[in-house]
Amino acid sequence: MRAGIDTITREWINRVEADPYLHSDDPLTLSQLIDHVPQMLDELCTLLAHEGEPDFKSVRAASSHGYTRSLAGYSLTELLRELELLRDCVFNFVAEKEVQHNVSRAGTIRALRTVNHYFGEDTIFVVEHYLQRNARQRDKAD
User: Fold this and answer.
1) How do the pLDDT tens digits run along the chain, 142 residues long?
2) Burial class (CB in 10 A: 0-12, 13-18, 19+), 108
């Protein structure tokens, strides 16, 4: 999958730019839009390369991406939508590779479960971050 990071990133950019519900990315440069996506995909490749259960405790790029987006004024809905588009791009890539390289069904299922877990962990982090930030803002207003 590491060799496909650029391909996945380009597909994701195209989908983000075409998404009618995403607007906070409009003023971003290409570099700002891409942000931590290649690092996220690299982290995911590292998790996929390990035998057995991956260790999600060391995952950092995804949380950095969410934090950066929150500072850029993204709503929680927009960030979650971006993450879902990226997850779908990765799913598509894994499914294509199964067919092209005759990967076993068990290998594909393991990879998709790891991908799903990775994005699930990031979703939890993002929601917690937004809730904490909103609570701090309410406390300051009181």
Assistant:
1) 899 999 999 999 999 999 999 988 888 888 988 988 999 999 999 989 888 787 777 777 666 777 777 767 788 899 899 999 999 999 999 999 988 998 899 999 999 999 999 999 888 888 888 888 889 888 998 8
2) middle
The pair of structure tokens assigned to 65 is 């991406």
- Confirm if 59 and 119 have CB atoms less than 8 A apart: no
Tell me if the pTM is above 0.85: yes
- Amino acid sitting at position 42: D
Distance CA 77, CA 13 (A): 17
Domains by residue range for the chain, with CATH: 2-47+59-141 (1.10.490)
Query: Which amino acid type is present at position 31?
Result: S
Cβ–Cβ under 8 Å, residues 89 and 11:
yes
